[in-house]
Structure prediction request, 232 residues.
Amino acid sequence: MGLQKRKAKVSAFLIDQTEVTQAAYAGFVEEAGYRPPHVSEEWAASDWNWAGTRGPEGKESHPVTLVSFYDAQAYCNWRGKRLPTEAEWQLAALGPSDARRMFPWGTRYRAERLNHGQLEAPHMDASDGYPGTAPVGQYAEGRSPYGLDDMFGNAWEYTADLRIDDWSSARHEGFDASGAMVNVSAPGPGLRVAVRGGSFYFDFEPNPGGEWSAFVPESRRKSAGFRCAADV
Prediction:
């Protein structure tokens, strides 16, 4: 977590098995009257922007993208849930720290286990079966230790935390006997929010351990989505 790594412990929580799909988000747009995913950019006109309350045809089971951090928060609130903290997300993706996984399935990169990109422009890579996003749950061998799909690849996932470099200043509920911070978080508002997991636009092979980044919370990217969490 961050550039200065610290031990963290989280209380029991729930987290969705998959990224929020376009079909699920459409229900939110229709029922809540929320703005549909859309950006005023030429590249988004045919393959990414929604027309009314529906996304591009045939992508109902793909993760919703073109959503901001605030859109993701609003959807999770609508469902009675929330975004996961970065510590929760990391545990769900990689398991306990003593397992020392670099990927949800282990320590070795396996390109066939996720929807990934390539280093060379235009960065999208159809060799994994999909040049853009893929339907959620297509890579069963890439599931996390807790059975979650697409924790790496497909779409970057917003967390509830800001991107900070020194976790010694983060909020927490004290320390456990091992010195781990309990329920650590870095809530906003702020300039950048933490996103995890990479995307169809990200090449993991030359970037092991690099599946964390920071986005401006107002930005809406074709590679950014989310999943929801909840307290037990």
In short: The chain has a mean pLDDT of 90. DSSP finds three helices and eight strands in the chain. The chain has one domain: 10-232.
